[in-house]
Amino acid sequence: MRVLCCVSDYPTHYFPLIPLGWALQAAGHELRVCAGPAQAATIERAGLTPVPCGPDVDPVTDARWLAYSLARQGLRTGQLPPLNPETGAELADLDAFDHAEFAARRQQELARVGEARTRDVLDLAKSWRPDLVLHDLVAAEAVVAAQLSGVPSACHLWGLTGTSETTPGLDSLAADVPAPVRELIGMAADEPAIRFVLDPTPPPIAPPTAAPRMPVRYVPYNGPGALADPPPWPTEIGRARVAVVWGSAIRRINGPGSFLVPALVDALAARGVDVVLAIGAEEAELLGRLPANVQVLPQYPLRLLLPHCTAVVHHGGAGAALTAAAAGLPQLVVAFGPMELRSAQRIADAGVGVALPGAHAAPGTIRAAVDQLLDTPELAAAAAEMARANAALPSPADVVPVLEKLAETGEQMGG
Amino acid sequence: MRVLFTVTRYSAHYFPLVPTAWALRAAGHEVVVACPPCEVALVGRAGLAAVPIEDGHDPMYLGRLHQYFQARQGQALLSGGVLHPVTGQPMRDLTEFDWARYKAEHRDANVARLRAGLDTTVAFARDWRPDLVVHDPLNMTGVLVGQVLGIPAWCHLWGPVGPLEERVGTQLVPRDHTDSFARHGVPPMGPELIERIIDPCPPVIGSGTALPTLPVRCVPYNGSGTVPELPPRGGRPRICVAWGNSLDLLLGPGSFLVPDILRALAPLPVEVVVVCGSAGRDRLGPLPGNVHVLSDLPLRLLLPYCEAIVYHGGAGSGMTAAWAGVPQLALPFTAEQQLTAERITRAGSGVWHVGYEVGTTGIRDAVSLLLDEPRYQHNAAALREEIAAMPSPAQVVEDLVARPRCHEGAV
Q: In this complex, is the C-beta atom of B323 within 8 Å of any C-beta atom belonging to chain A?
């Protein structure tokens, strides 16, 4: 069958569905991945076939805009002061930014992008005639394409963010089709835009979903990576090796004050544990001289690194959280944005990790959180249990027959 | 389960393994690809994790060496001379390369390099403890790892030429000139160590070896790429002219037939899409309006929209044409390509002519035949259906995993 997939312009939002793409291709199906032109190289590099659609969107601008808007509404607690959404510069105070002017302009711009992208996706759907449409949480153009093509659609979550979130900032993320468009394409006003959910989060940390949900085993893909600089492979007996994962977008969204890697390294080094830093080259340069037991591995595939670690510290990104979950490691999540904070809370609530809101992070609180991470055997036990639960879920390969049936009959999936 | 792939430094030889690797990952298994450092980027572009530790000979060097020895026996393929085996540059005469002297000067360093690659991969495998190995036919590292660790090694074919061929120039299984198998205490490298194969060919075009074989549906992967905007065909048949880089590297510019093919097609009422490397494009000069050149485009994204393909005899192009159900004209040069062409057209889905003998009229007549005789279209469609009915890579993975240590006869 032919499967058309629409994703948003943020690699970590579509990396979790890459293995499902491989599964479809390995079963002989064809897949086209629609995204902004700037994503084409990253999608190609995953072995899938991109179709550049519409102009690019810089998700960092919108993440900063969300932070700023929440702060204006007084809904932003425990977070750093917001940056100028447009430039990323630090703001003296909220009024130092002309929000009304920016909001009006950005809304128009996003509407234009949305229209152009929807047009491109519809063109592809018309000429390529897909049997099924897949999409991430936010790609509403997929729903329109599925409706007009008369084929079923399914939403693949990117992580711990569901379709029916109530947290401010997350509550309006899920793809929807506005009333005038519904009228145009013959879609009933009360028909849910998201009809099925493929959920790659293991049960204890699964987010709320409103549509029928099919769990999928999370198979980590965090970019192809290469083992160009292998660390000593066997874990040294008696010493923990802790991985610190820190995305490069954190600083751009939350400002220089959010770069907590040095404080985290200090706290971990003080405990005498070996540390591996899975961070980009640009972040590594900010670190200066590192203690002997700290190693930077910028390209190393996280999934191949974590089996040699005993715990993970990260910023709350879905890729890091889910890869740690699949590896069965307890995690310390130091989060800034609303999505990451919500994920951190879910991880703490499930007893598989520790949550530390980034704005509360100071040397003392970081040390306490690291101690809690390393000294609470219950966290490791619960994390190991979660990995077993993940491994017992249907693999992406197992999901393919379910999608084949969905395409053929439009029948809802179980689960 | 952990699966180690070991591949040689030529992408067309390991691209057919990629969908099998995807299938393993998608079923939740772990895969890494031990490759020469120069292949890291291309392995990564397939979405796979590369381990740059393998360091076997460049198959193009070995191929040029073979052409050189053939020429010394008066059996050069092209009259224009052969390429220098080491530099790949055209030689005015055979004395420009002194094999005895080259061997005397470089043998020790080459042996040390080859041994280091083999030893590092064995050490990595001992540490990573794969449950099985998958390797391409030219790669002996996977065979060594399988022997040393006592795990199954699967030789994953790229097309119709198998590991046990007899014809000169078609024997793919490499030889170990480094004493490495003995150093590791296992039987010497040879065809008898190839114990099981994964074969992407349906029986009608396959090599038909008696080895335990897992047939796998060809899911063509010829590199990653973006869907091209195709020129309109204006109601006329669209002919794909695909010319891989391997002939340039093996035989030199004298083997670049694309200008001849374009001259042959010029009088025909067809649209032509040429797919070749960017170096080839520069050699084409001004083109008529019905000829379009697309550089470095994965053929699988183009062939479903073509009525015929003319190509250099590479197995990757031939298998993609078979998968797409497109009638093919193969113009092979080397012995391996000729055997591929013979077998891949056995189903009546195409014709082949020796590339350095065919001439413009021969090409034009052959393409006209493919377009005018409906049986080629019919047979190509039948071959496509036969391929589509084979077990997909996803299904083959179930067999690999269920019976990893299978040693019995045909599986």
A: no
Class of domain B238-388: alpha beta
- Report ipTM (2 d.p.): 0.94
Judged by CB atoms within 8 Å, which residues 115-144 of B form the interface with A?
A: 124, 127-128
CB contact under 8 A, B226 and A19: no
C-alpha–C-alpha distance, residues A328 and A310, integer Å: 9
Look at domain B2-217+391-402 and name its CATH class.
alpha beta
**pLDDT tens, chain B, 411 aa long:** 999 999 999 999 999 999 999 999 999 999 999 999 999 999 999 999 999 998 888 889 999 999 999 999 998 888 878 999 999 999 988 999 999 999 999 999 999 999 999 999 999 999 889 999 999 999 999 999 999 999 999 999 999 999 999 998 898 899 999 999 999 999 999 999 999 999 999 999 999 988 999 999 999 999 999 888 888 888 899 999 999 888 989 999 889 999 999 999 999 999 999 998 877 888 898 899 899 999 878 999 999 999 999 999 999 999 999 999 999 999 999 999 999 999 999 999 999 999 999 999 999 999 999 999 999 999 999 999 999 999 999 999 999 988 655 544 444
Binary contact (A18, B32; C-beta < 8 A): no
Chain A residues inside the 8 Å CB shell of B128: 233
Q: Does A397 touch chain B (CB under 8 A)?
A: yes
The sign of the CA dihedral B221, B222, B227, B231 is negative
3-state secondary structure of B101: helix
Determine the number of helices (DSSP H) and then strands (DSSP E) in chain A.
16, 13
Q: Do B224 and A221 touch (CB under 8 A)?
A: no
Q: Does B279 touch chain A (CB under 8 A)?
A: no
- The domain spans of chain B are 2-217+391-402, 238-388
> Which residues have C-beta within 8 Å of that of residue B221, sequence separation ≥ 6?
A47, B15, B16, B18, B19, B46, B298, B300
> Shortest Cα distance from A299 to chain B (angstroms)?
10
Task: Tell me whether B221 touches chain A (CB under 8 Å).
Answer: yes
Domains of chain A: 2-218+393-409 (3.40.50.2000), 241-391 (3.40.50.2000)
Of B310, B306, B308, B275, the residue nearest B293 (C-alpha)? B275
Q: Which residues of chain B does A303 touch, with a Cβ-Cβ cutoff of 8 Å?
A: 30
Residues in chain A closer than 8 A to B23 (CB atoms): 22-23, 26-27, 397
Contact of B36 with B56, CB cutoff 8 Å? yes
